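Quarterly update, task 2.4: manganese (II) ion-bound model.
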Amino acid sequence: MRHCASVREARQSETTALAHGCGSLRYRTVSTAMSASNGKIGDMARVSDGSAGRSAPRETPKTVRKPRRQLARGTPPDDKLARYQAKRDFSRTPEPTGKTPKMAHGRQLRFVVQRHRARRRHYDLRFEMNGILASWAVPNGPTLDPAAKRLAVHVEDHPIEYIDFEGVIPAGEYGGGDVIVWDTGTWEPYDTDDPVEAVAAGELHADVTGQKLKGRLILVRRGRGREESHQWLLMHKNDEYAVSGWDAEDYPLSVLSGRTNEQVKSDPDRIWRSDLPAAEALVELRPRPIPGPADAELAALDDLGAAGTWHVFGRELRLTNLDKELFPARSGEGPVTKRELIRYSARIAPVILPYLAGRPLNMHRFPGGAAQPGFWNKQLPDHVPDWLPRWHNPEAKQGRSTTYLVVDEPAALVWVANYGALEWHPWTSRAANQGSPTYALIDIDPGSATTWDDVLVLARLHRTALAHLDVKAQPKVTGRRGIQIWIPVADGLTYHDTRIWVEQLSKEIGAVVPELISWKWDVSERHGLARLDYTQNVSNKTLVAPYSPRAAAGAPVSAPIEWQELDDPALRPDGFTIRTILDRVAKRGDLFRAVQGPGQDLPPLR
Ligand SMILES: [Mn+2]
């Protein structure tokens, strides 16, 4: 075992210096690791200093040279940025347009801090400059504490594609471990127009505007004149943003997802293949989250009169009756207006879209508000905006709905809210494969005599059974009186398969508590008992989407819960509303995300 004394080794990579505690890994420089990967990440290294020789294995640590202004060869960073931006285009979210001279392509420069757990936990502080990410690994994390001096190991420049990476790097690859975006925002170099030069000279002052970090960070290479040194100190100026004793470990959640490293590790959205070229390294395991509406867009909605045109998510929507009270008040609260519903639809869109995209939507409309009777609207009318995504059902029978709305983009959900659809019911199957459900549905449907405690008993029995069967499933309260459980199922199962399986499970559970359950179809024959409604597992039958409002006083929502919340005496089936659920999502993430995960074969029940 060698020690970490040499700068060379500290410099090799974050993997060796930090993740592997400097001793256990065979000698392996970043550049050899990169060149071993087809030399293609070497492109990134070349970009970092404009030198052509960087893709070759290096025996010595990076010598900091004065960078060339022109890149001799390799992929120009402009192209990389363009590719990156092209990848983001689908979200239709306009980028902020800064006007300062220190911008990349009309944008302000970005920075990111990634909390990275490899062999050892550390924080990677990265500043966008000259098309790459200049990077430091900070074992104890950046701080707002003006008295603190943090060791910051200057590591290889990273490709710009990495700037919003959150996920897992496979074990055995460079940086293997889990990564969250711990903080991100914009930055400006202070007292220089040439941050690359400042880094080369060993001192960078950066004014950062992140969600956690604010104010001026100061990075200084240790030992002036020792250009070989990769050990820097990171400090925070004693400015208006300084906070004594501030510790990064007290703020462990991702600013992207609200998740911890542990949560990301156990259920990642993305993988970064360090062994592939930067442009190919990102492997999306789930659809990429869509950015929510900008503050300015929300303010514009607030500023509209009773009707008007709202520009949001890159679309133009004609909104009407914005001050109409759609949901009666709950005690102690005001009624919920249509404007508030529309605002909610825009803000929840990034969270709910994975459950709606690609699926025909049955809309439960209440144009007169939740206090009036509603009706189902499946057929999309002809007079709607051309851009609304839709699906024509090739198997529609005579006289049935032929054209369905498909909420493939967030603006479509805003349209739905403006259309008076208070409840959103996506199909269990995707339009592209309408015979194959992606979920099996369990619907604990309380009768008039069923108490909330009875519902909880039934839900806990399902929890026990599903855990015993090793079937991954997620519960949600309905926003009315019940609980539903969604089970992601493997491709190729039919509605017949899911219906039979859920029926068998329901019958087994019902046999444990026969006093709570009726199997009668007719409500009048159920004597107020609950029903376990496996018949929802059929084409064009739907359950309300997670996060959908319900047409009831106070605008309750169908809220995903964790299994252990079934034991929480404070849990209520309609306890979350469009006024409270966004805070819950911000704090705890999307608790229904397991349903988006890989489907399962349903095990035999007997
Ligand atoms: Mn790292």
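Highlight for this quarter: DSSP finds 14 helices and 26 strands in the chain.
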